[in-house]
Amino acid sequence: MDRFYLITGTTTLLERLVPLGVKLVQLRLKDVPKEELRNQAQRAKACCAAHGAQLVLNDYWQLAIDMDIDFVHLGQEDMDLADFAALRRANVRFGLSTHDETELDRALSHDPEYVALGPVYPTLLKKMKWGPQGLERVREWKRFAGKVPLVAIGGLTPERLPGVFAAGADCAAVVTDIQQATDPEARCREWIAATR
């Protein structure tokens, strides 16, 4: 699993950044009309295939099965509806979000490809009922997760990476720091350099 995990809310941004050398990218589509979902996912899949990147589709596990996208990310609410047996039959790997011990136990019981912990630092992306988890929590999560890769997310910047990796995270996921950068391409290159 690559140490840099780009998360983008638009296929257009994905198509701009993946060619720079991104190897792991999640397409997190929100409020997209159903008929547009398939088109967006197809564009993302084609871009990732052309550049040797792993595409992870957020939430839409049924669409991933239908379109032969081999990786999905599921939040806790998505896990309530997901058919894990169907995902396994279709050879679709999955990563799962966690925020507390109960959620981590639940996630690990499904034998995920990775577990994500967040927000590590304060985040601007969305209102969350969890406060910043901090680096001690990253250490604790890595102990619990064992060999399952741990993805840190929330408020990360290239400058914070050494502490996050030293605490045990295997991978750093980023949304806002690149999405809101004045030059997303330049910031993405900084992330790639800092994680390789």
Describe the structure.
The chain is an alpha/beta fold. It is 44% helix and 18% strand. It has 10 helices and 8 strands. The chain has an 8-stranded parallel beta barrel with strand order 1-2-3-4-5-6-7-8, surrounded by 5 helices. The radius of gyration is 16 Å and the shape is globular. The chain starts with a strand and ends with a helix.
Helical content class: 40-55%
Approximately how much beta-strand content do the residues carry?
15-25%
Mean pLDDT: 95
Main beta-sheet annotation: 8 strands, parallel, barrel
**How many β-strand stretches?**
8
Going by helix content, strand content and strand pairing, the class is alpha/beta
Topology:
Blueprint: E1 4-8, H1 11-17, E2 24-27, H2 34-51, E3 54-58, H3 61-67, E4 71-74, H4 76-81, H5 84-89, E5 93-98, H6 101-109, E6 114-117, H7 134-145, E7 150-153, H8 161-166, E8 171-174, H9 176-179, H10 184-195
Parallel strand pairs: 1-2, 1-8, 2-3, 3-4, 4-5, 5-6, 6-7, 7-8
